[in-house]
Amino acid sequence: MISRRLLLAAGMVAGLGLPMAGPALAQAPAQKMPVVASFSILGDFVKQVGGDRVAVTTIVGPNGDAHVYQPTPADAKAVAAAKVVFVNGLGFEGWMDRLIKASGTKAPIVVATKGITPRTGFVDHDDDEKPKAKGKDKHDHAKEGGHDHGGIDPHAWQSIANAKVYVANVRDGLIAADPDGRDVYTANAAAYTAKLDALETEVKSAMAKIPAEQRRIITSHDAFGYFGEAYGLVLVAPEGVSTESEASAKDVGRIIRQIKAQKIPAVFVENVTDPRLIQRIAKESGAKVGGTLYSDALSDDKGPASTYIDMMHSNVRELSSALSS
């Protein structure tokens, strides 16, 4: 009886000239493939490309700071169960090797920044006016599971052109782990890349409307270098490319003098950093505090930056509001 009803229904659809299920629907698996992404921005890329074929677990979630994250047993369990693990690379997740080893996973590790030329020549600021803990220095910390970027800026996603490389690497990683989903992953990646093309046009247009002499800001840590290079923004950060590094009194004094000398109009807090340092710099320099910029993590679902595209829109909106007035 059930088969007869299905056949009748199919016949009605055909008779009405309506299309049967498309390729993406036909290829939807009975069970979603478990995958892991190291942080929320990368997790969004994986969700956009993977669609209904994947179940994504993100290690460092919304508003989380991947620079200083400490993995949990639940993270190790998720990595162990994953069919593929996506990481940023470029020294961003200094704890990832430790987590992978602890999990015993045999899943392939896909580095989403493969093919991107990183910004180099950076040195994280040390607080040379504050005594170090006895027997430890920043290199000891790196060996114990922290991380040293080695002079490389890992925040490559802040350039939309680079985001497209992330998407291509995610697509290829998913196809390698799940060849049956090739058509779905290819189509999803192409559709999302088209959205990124439109986003890039919007961002370039919005930034171009800000007077060139106004495109100078202070942020908590050096996370927007790729954005600055791509869209003509000059940035100064009291901390280095990692939130693990601390700004010294000398660094802060230098930045306050620079703000006054160059008439830098605004300072911005980030969603992953303590706002007190930026608030102090603003108070002592006379610069206004702009809105919150999303650097290393998305917001939660109720925030303005719950996806990568929303994050870029939110950041540009805050920059335009603070720098155009």
TrEMBL record:
<keyword id="KW-0175">Coiled coil</keyword>
<protein>
    <submittedName>
        <fullName>Zinc ABC transporter substrate-binding protein</fullName>
    </submittedName>
</protein>
<feature type="region of interest" description="Disordered">
    <location>
        <begin position="120"/>
        <end position="154"/>
    </location>
</feature>
<feature type="coiled-coil region">
    <location>
        <begin position="182"/>
        <end position="216"/>
    </location>
</feature>
<feature type="signal peptide">
    <location>
        <begin position="1"/>
        <end position="26"/>
    </location>
</feature>
<keyword id="KW-0479">Metal-binding</keyword>
<dbReference type="Pfam" id="PF01297">
    <property type="entry name" value="ZnuA"/>
</dbReference>
<dbReference type="InterPro" id="IPR006127">
    <property type="entry name" value="ZnuA-like"/>
</dbReference>
<dbReference type="InterPro" id="IPR006128">
    <property type="entry name" value="Lipoprotein_PsaA-like"/>
</dbReference>
<feature type="compositionally biased region" description="Basic and acidic residues">
    <location>
        <begin position="122"/>
        <end position="152"/>
    </location>
</feature>
<dbReference type="InterPro" id="IPR006311">
    <property type="entry name" value="TAT_signal"/>
</dbReference>
<dbReference type="InterPro" id="IPR050492">
    <property type="entry name" value="Bact_metal-bind_prot9"/>
</dbReference>
<comment type="similarity">
    <text>Belongs to the bacterial solute-binding protein 9 family.</text>
</comment>
<keyword id="KW-0732">Signal</keyword>
<dbReference type="InterPro" id="IPR006129">
    <property type="entry name" value="AdhesinB"/>
</dbReference>
<keyword id="KW-0813">Transport</keyword>
